Amino acid sequence: MLNDLHTIIPPAIAHDVAASLYGDQASDVGACLNLPTIDRPLRLLLAAMKYVCHDHGSDVTRQFLLRAIAARALRAQPLAINLQELPPTAKGVAETKPVIETKLSARQVEAVRDYIVANLADAVGVKDLAGCIGMSRTQFVRRFKASTGMTPHQVVIDARIDKAKELLVNKTLGVDEVAAKCGFAHASHLSAVFRKHLKISPSVYRARAAHGDASAHLSSAAELAGTLVRGHL
Fold first, then answer.
1. How far is CA 207 from CA 112, 140, 173, 189, in A?
2. pLDDT tens by residue, 143-194
3. Does 100 reside within a domain?
4. Are residues 23 and 76 in the same domain?
5. Strand, coil or helix: 219
């Protein structure tokens, strides 16, 4: 059985597998199945076939194993053809072409920006953003990144930070109130995000803003829009 694979692999399957691997130039399949190099993977496949043949598996399983054995055998001892002359796809090597992801339109970018700004106090998820322009989640994430160079999450966080900086200038609002209005879970969450992105706490930012020293950090929703539009262009 090990040295005469063509006795267990139907010619139709052998030729079909060979054609899948090497294209139309595949020939002399039988010769390669007579005495293949029996490596460990092939031995395991043969052992599995022996087990299945003893009424331990369905016909679907047998067909699958037959194809796997044929493929492994042909890989171990390739057909008598010059692979250098074959096109890449015939050698099992997929041709790779650069994929240019379609971007969102300017109107779609604007719609997403408006949705984010209008819903900062709520939980803004990727599904929500994709839905506001009638797009699937996966498609939206790819196109949004291609358009802006940023992930949706990054843009939402930036918008929350911008709004928080704007509100912190108003001393009548507590830090916890600012956090709530900007969609942060609590004041500690706002503080952690500020420290990560601005390297200062909300309280320090507020103190600097009171003395006119926060301009270096101050952006705005308009700047967010500019970032999105520039990424789109």
1. 33, 39, 14, 19
2. 999 999 999 999 999 999 999 999 999 888 999 999 999 999 999 999 999 9
3. no
4. yes
5. coil
